[in-house]
Amino acid sequence: MTPARSRETPPDLAKPAKPAKMMKKRTLLRRILPLPLLALLASSGAVAPATSSASEEDGMPFANWPQWRGPSGTSVAPAGSYPVTFSPSKEVLWKAALPGVGSSTPAVWGERIFVTCGIDGNDAVLAYDWSGRELWRTALGPERPGKHKNGSGANPSPIVDGERIVVYYKSGTVASLSHEGKVHWKTNLQSRFGEDTLWWDLGTSPVFAGGRIVVAVMQEGESYLVALEPSDGSVAWKIDRTFPVQKETGQSYTTPYVAEIDGRETLVVWGADHLTGHDPADGSVLWTCGGFNPEDKPMWRVIASPAIVDGIAVVPYGRTQFTAGIRLGGSGDITATARLWERDDLGADCPSPVGRDGRAYVLTDRGAIHCLDVETGRDLWSGAIPRASASFYSSPVLAGDLLYCAREDGMVAVVRVGDSGMELLSQNDMGELIAAAPVPVRNRLLIRGIDHLYCLGAE
User: Fold this and answer.
1) CA 351 to CA 344: how far, in whole Å?
2) For residue 357, which of 404, 406, 400 has the smallest C-alpha distance?
3) Residue pair 445/404 in contact by the 8 Å Cβ criterion
4) Beta-strand (E) ranges in 130-273?
5) Residues with Cβ within 8 Å of residue 233, at least 6 apart in sequence
6) Among 167, 133, 40, 130, which residue's Cα sits nearest to residue 441?
7) Cα–Cα distance between 324 and 314 in angstroms, integer?
8) Is 142 helix (H, G, I), strand (E, B) or coil?
9) Which residue of 108, 169, 334, 456 sits 20 to 30 Å from the alpha carbon of 181, by its own alpha carbon?
10) CA pair distance 449, 307, nearest whole angstrom
């Protein structure tokens, strides 16, 4: 193994002081959660306000899962009574037959579970209750079907708050609906700003940032970030994010990450060989980090989104060849100072890393798991899920000390991770293709397959 190459470490501008224990918990919570989501989650009970804690530190399961990577945007959930051994007939509270194809992760708010897919040639969104009963379905216009064998026209995951659900599709359609399925508004980014030039199916999901809906369009040629007003879908701002790169390298399937960095809400975007930080108020660039493709190679598109742990982004790139650790923050071009380490023996193409408490877990497409120290990039331990001909397209989710890893052939591995290593607790064959990330919420596990939505857990 090639060891991580250490670089000079700049001061950690994002680390707060360490006061009393309770204040430390609240400070950590604010660092991890995007600011608008923190307020929304506090009001919903998923994360309590500072005066009443229902956060990860208290070990209580989240009540909502409002976006692809959960309430915190980290793919990390508190410990809970989640199922470990299951199948299409074991630990199944209910399963619902899906009416069309989609690869998006379900979103949860209150008593509703939202799923996107194609139905009868149209982009569509459905809502279920916690008994598995379909409440409504709404069609939003003609779909663009998926091109990849594991893809679809509904790869982007929905986002939801207390008032609306926002959906995005390969067709370019973005729409806002009520929790009852009524369309508030819809628009089409490709009709307004130009055709989609990605080689494969759209992958990025929208995010809430700065009180608006932000979508990253990173593709061949002109790329951009756009913020839409939640009230009517009008454009609040749009900025160019086009870098001079070789063929296909400008294409990105990643989702922006919203976090507090240097005491301010920051939109972190990864693609086209650059990690950039933006002010959600107007999209302006706060800082830029390059150096991810020093030989300017073509076809270095990226799929996996970074994990951000303790102010450090763990960034896979180079089509499974590389992973780097980047200290976020500062201003201007931070390329020379921000890179803490890089490895040329570890990477993931599709699964996004997940991490917490100074550690990042990198699941490779072939099932190896590396637990890294985010400050140095060195392995604390490594292990592997037994290999198969299939690969991991879904990103892992960490619930307490359980790492859920879904493989494309329908096998969901449950791995206990600890200080000294990993323990493979189970391999569960769900019998159908899985590309969406599992959702641990309310002591239940939602798994979205190609044919069914499963709700797993104890009665």
Assistant:
1) 17
2) 400
3) yes
4) 134-142, 159-160, 165-168, 173-177, 183-188, 207-209, 212-217, 224-228, 235-240, 257-261, 264-271
5) 174, 176, 184, 185, 186, 187
6) 130
7) 6
8) strand
9) 456
10) 24
Q: Where are the alpha helices (DSSP H) in 327-402?
A: 335-338
Alpha-carbon span 236 to 208, nearest angstrom:
13
Number of Cβ within 10 Å of residue 2's Cβ equals: 9
In order of their start, the domains of the chain are 21-456 (2.130.10.10)
Which residue type does 429 have? D
Spatial distance between the Cα atoms of 299 and 302, rounded to a whole number of angstroms: 9
Question: Element (H or E) spanning 156, and its range?
Answer: none
* Sequence-separated (6 or more) residues with CB below 8 Å from residue 406: 392, 394, 412, 413, 434, 436, 437, 438, 447
- Our CA dihedral for 201, 203, 209, 212, rounded to 10 degrees, sits at 20
Cα separation, 235 vs 193, in Å, equals: 11
Can you give the pLDDT of all 459 residues of the chain as single tens digits? 433 433 333 322 233 333 333 333 333 333 333 333 333 333 333 322 222 223 333 457 889 999 999 999 999 999 999 999 999 999 999 999 999 999 999 999 999 999 999 999 999 999 999 999 999 999 999 999 988 877 789 999 999 999 999 999 999 999 999 999 999 999 999 999 999 999 888 899 999 999 999 999 999 989 999 999 999 999 999 999 999 999 999 999 999 999 999 999 999 999 999 999 999 999 999 999 999 999 999 999 999 999 999 999 999 999 999 999 999 999 999 999 999 999 999 999 999 999 999 999 999 999 999 999 999 999 999 999 999 999 999 999 999 999 999 999 999 999 999 999 999 999 999 999 999 999 999 999 999 999 999 999 987
Those residues with Cβ within 8 angstroms of residue 70's Cβ, 6 or more apart along the chain or in another chain: 62, 76, 77, 397, 439
Angle made by CA atoms 191, 151, 305, in degrees to the nearest 5: 85
Q: The pTM is what?
A: 0.86
Q: How far is residue 240 from each of residues 66, 107, 132, 220, measured CA to CA in Å?
A: 28, 29, 42, 13
For residue 57, which phi and psi values (nearest 5 degrees)?
-65, -25
Q: Where are the alpha helices (DSSP H) in 33-178?
A: 35-44
User: Any idea which residue has 């071009």 for tokens?
Assistant: 333
Question: Alpha-carbon distance 12 to 294, whole Å?
Answer: 26
Quick check: 165 and 65 in contact, CB under 8 A? no
* Sign of the dihedral defined by the CA atoms of residues 50, 59, 256, 326, in that order: positive
